[in-house]
Amino acid sequence: MTAATFRALHHDRPAGDPLVLPNAWDAGSARVFADAGFEALATPSAGVAASLGYEDGSTPPAEMFAAVARVVRAVSVPVSADVEDGYGLAPAELVERLLEAGVVGCNLEDSEGHATLKDPQRHADWLAEVRAAAGDALVINARVDTFLFGSGDPADAVARAKLYVAAGADCVYPLRAPTEVLPVLREGITGPINMAAAPNRESVTELARHGATRITFGPGMQRYAMAAIGDLAANLRA
Q1: 3-state SS assignment for residue 17
Q2: Which CA distances in Å does 202 have to 50, 70, 169, 197, 199?
Q3: What pLDDT does residue 113 have?
Q4: Which residues contact 63 (CB under 8 A, 6 or more apart)?
Q5: d(CA 40, CA 80)
Q6: Residue 50: left if φ>0, alpha if ψ -120 to 50, beta else—which one?
Q7: Are 10 and 1 in contact (CB under 8 A)?
Q8: pLDDT tens readout for residues 204-231
Q9: CA neighbours closer than 13 Å in the CB half-sphere of residue 208
Q10: How far apart are CA 110 and CA 125, in angstroms?
């Protein structure tokens, strides 16, 4: 599947039928999700970090891109990669590394150091450079972190989202936005909206009902799997 086909999956979807992308953190988990019939996958930066023994935000870029490439090689469905804030790479180099890994999309966040929001216009200008370097070869999912590190005012999220869409983002991702504000975001934002779900059917259904276009799970699936292994280990130890 090309980026164009992956991009098309975000549009003209029936109400209540979002694009659901499980978050695979390694080749094995990717194969499980692909074998279950999902048409595309995403990688979670925090989940990949944990699988490699790093804290969230501390994975060396080379290791992150290598992990993403292993996920891509393991499956025949398209993969979108969470590459945090781009690791300080110039747009052309970032795009080159992503395409070398084989992905058709990427998440790019508008905060730095997992603590501070970037200037929205500066970030929009940077996204425009990424878009120019990528052409149509990547689906850009622009993460909006105002609910993490900002005021939490939906108006702030909408203002940033509009700048990012104008800069060429295909989708916006207001991380940690409360489900009840999704209709407000939906009204103010043109184009697809990604929302993060808990790793259960009820959470997906609720977000779909409120208007999410695309649903991912962040590190939730990796943490769910590790919790299950923890229970198994405890039972075996007992």
Answers
A1: coil
A2: 26, 31, 29, 9, 9
A3: 86
A4: 52, 54
A5: 8
A6: alpha
A7: no
A8: 999 999 999 999 999 999 999 999 999 9
A9: 15
A10: 12
Tell me how far apart the alpha carbons of residues 167 and 103 are, in angstroms, rounded to a whole number.
Answer: 21
Identify the segments of the chain with pLDDT beneath 70. Answer: none
Partners of 105 in the β-ladder: 80, 139
Rounded to 5 degrees, φ, ψ at 206 are -65, -45
Q: What is the DSSP letter of 81?
A: E
Helices (H), the chain: 3-8, 27-35, 45-52, 61-74, 91-101, 120-134, 146-149, 154-166, 182-188, 201-209, 220-237
Nearest to 73 by CA among 36, 100, 109, 44: 100
Is residue 151 packed enough to be buried (19+ CB in 10 Å), middle (13-18) or exposed (0-12)? exposed
Label the pairing between strands 194-196 and 171-174: unpaired
Catalytic residues: 56
Query: Quick check: 4 and 136 in contact, CB under 8 A?
Result: yes
Contact present, 74 and 31 (Cβ < 8 Å): yes
Task: Round to whole Å and give the CA distance between 204 and 228.
Answer: 21
Contacts of 93 (CB under 8 A, 6+ apart): none
Please give the single-letter amino acid code of residue 15.
A
Q: What is the pLDDT of residue 114?
A: 83
Residue 215 three-state SS: strand
Identity of the amino acid at 31: R
